[in-house]
Hints:
The protein is of the alpha/beta class. The protein has helices at residues 30-43, 103-119, 136-146, 161-167, 183-188, 196-202, and strands at residues 3-7, 13-18, 123-126, 152-156, 173-177, 191-195. The two termini are 16 Å apart.
Amino acid sequence: MASIDRIxxxxxxxxxxxVADALLVDQINVDLLHQVVxxxxxxxxxxxxxxxxxxxxxxxxxKQWRQKGTGRARVGSGKVAQFTGGGVAFPPIPRSYAVKxxxxxxxxxFRMALADLVAGGTVRxxxxxxFEEPSTKRAAGILSRAALDKPLLxxxxxxxxxxxxxxxxxxxxxxxTVGEAEVQDYVWAKSLLFTEAAVAFLEGGPGRGGEx
Length: 212
């Protein structure tokens, strides 16, 4: 069973947290990680690019000039792509970029991404700290004293809104509620900071959704 440091608000190690074996794996499958991350990023694409083809634009379909004798290239409809106001050749149309990923494969990718960070010794649990109200200055102080490398992923519990607001304006930081974090967030990060509520969620808290 792997363990990670528990630190207080001053960055001092106050204990160790044993990470549940169910959250980690022994081997990293880079191909699977790449597949899941690519699918997640594709799912965020809007796919709303759109343009009209020659059959959709307004205009005449009449032949623009006679076929021969003008010295110009032959042309038919006035709605072809080379004319101003003509339709676009091979136009983009709205589409979905979503890629289906098997639930078990995604759960395995989560475990691998977390295991890689734990193995690198860059994961901490922020113990005994609660934000009554948002304070970016306080959050910056915590991270400065914790000496965590960036890019840094900070995961908080769903109810820790003040903590989320405190960390989110800091450069090089990505702060999310633990249920919102995707595999690509773990892969993006060089370091990871959990709140105690976030760790409890991962280790079997209600509403976990079975991602890990």
